[in-house]
Amino acid sequence: QVQLVESGGGLVQAGGSLRLSCGASGMIFSIYDMGWYRQAPGKQRELVAGITNGGKTNYADSVKGRFTISRDNAKAMVYLQMNSLKPEDTAVYYCNGRHVGGVRPDAWGQGIQVTVSS
Known about the structure:
By secondary structure, the protein is mainly β. 0% of the residues lie in helices and 53% in strands. The protein is globular, with a radius of gyration of 14 Å.
């Protein structure tokens, strides 16, 4: 059974930093592209950052230069380093895994709250 578990969220002041972690199990991690999504109240879920199984990254314009996604295939972990946080970054953050061959359904974590106070 594929499982993604997020950790590292919480409350931080504007300008501060947080590091989210996502541990994967029940999957061959190295053949999944991974991503972080977020959903703020009343808004649609949006892609924040993605990293392919080969390490290529992409970011939403709103977080470029502030957030960094990385992965450790040996540990089956993906990380999101968030710096210079803004109140508009407040959301529930979700870890996502997408099989590179598309033959498995997407995997999602349960979500973790990030709150940035002004």
